[in-house]
Amino acid sequence: MAEVIEEQQQNQTEKETVKVVEKKSKAGLWFGILITVGVIVLAGAGFYLLQQLREHQDTLSTQDNQKLIEMSRQINAFQSQIAAMQSQLATLDADITGKENHFNKALADFSSLHDEKLATAKKELMQSIARIERQLGKTRGDWLIADAEYLLSVANERLHLVGDVNTTREALEAADQRLRESGDAAVFKVRSEIAKELAALRSVQVPDIVGLYARLQTLNDKIPQLSVLLPYVGKKLSKSAPIHQHEKASGEHSALSSVLGQLGDYVVVRHSDKPVGEILTPEQAQFIREQLSVKLEMIKIALVQQNDTLYQAAIQDAKKWLKDNFALDRNGKAFQQELDILAKVSLQGQFPDISKSLKMLKDISKLRLEKDKGLSKANSVNTVAPQPVSIPDSGTQNSMN
């Protein structure tokens, strides 16, 4: 019994042990399964996380690349803008440099011009000061010589530019008077030349301007007496002179002579070498006379101005107008003869040269040197001249011995 009990206990113990072992084995299996499942879950989670991480990294790398590309584009744009700004700065710098060079050149030119003007002004001022010093140092004789030089220049201008002989003569005489009052011995040659020039001026024939003007005025008053060549309404009839004798001509004029004899009291027949194209009106005839009067006025103007070229041209124009538009009857021929007489007058003849005295006076220093040389030679001759030697008599020589 005890053995049976023990066996039962052993069996029970074995059963319990088997149960415990079975329990333990089941627990280990589930634990292993759980661990395996956990490892698988962890591995899956890790793989998922790893995939997510890789995807995230790829996304991050793509975004970073896009950002880098965008940043590189912005950097390139900034660099292009910087390059454009640098080119603009270079252009601006070149422009500023060019303007600076231009301003420097203009300033240098202005400075040089100002220096030249300053030098010129200084030179003129020094010349003025020297001139004033010379004038202050002049004596009354020097002033008289300067006045004579001015009068000689005026005489030359009046003679050769205006043709005024009377004023020229008066200026030469006044210059000679100034030189005489100066008391300078060096102006003797100048006065001699002035005397020659005055003698030459006295031989110049001066036209009578007033008389010629009066003759032109008389001609102007005779214009209404001239007969216009062409016929016009209201023209006064004058006696006609036949060109040839009809009674001495052949018989072909007999019929014409008889007709003219019958119409002699009503018709006046004149012969003219020029064809008559039309009959003038009284206004046209008056215009022709006024034109001749205007041409005479042109002759007067040239006479007053003493313009010989214009004077001769105006006379020739008046003669041509007279010949073309007026009848050369007794009044016309007298008018033409007066114009011929006026054309023979020369307003400006051949004037003598009076510039030599002015040239000599301008070179008064040379004349003074020549005068001083002449005086020094005269003094040297007087100094070297031998003194008269007195020869003693023979009686005197014996007494001296």
Which terms would index this structure?
401 residues, mainly alpha, 76% helix, disordered C terminus
For the termini, the CA-CA separation is 236 Å
Helix count from the secondary structure assignment:
12
Over all CA atoms, what is the radius of gyration? Answer: 69 Å
Helix content class: over 70%
Most strands sheet:
none
* SSE arrangement, N to C: HHHHHHHHHHHH
Q: Strand content of the residues, in percent?
A: under 5%
The beta-strand count equals 0
* Poorly predicted parts: 240-251, 263-271, 384-401
Q: Could you say which structural class the secondary elements and strand pairing correspond to? A: mainly alpha
Shape: elongated
- Mean pLDDT metric: 75
Give a brief rundown of this model.
The protein has 401 residues and is an all-alpha fold.
Describe the model.
Among the domains are: 1-110; 138-206; 207-231 and 279-348. Helix content is 76%, strand content 0%. The chain contains twelve helices and no strands. The chain has helices at residues 2-136, 140-162, 165-182, 188-202, 209-221, 254-262, 282-305, 308-325, 330-343, 356-362, 364-384, 394-400. The longest helix has 135 residues, at 2-136.
In terms of topology, how is this protein built?
Layout: H1 2-136, H2 140-162, H3 165-182, H4 188-202, H5 209-221, H6 254-262, H7 282-305, H8 308-325, H9 330-343, H10 356-362, H11 364-384, H12 394-400
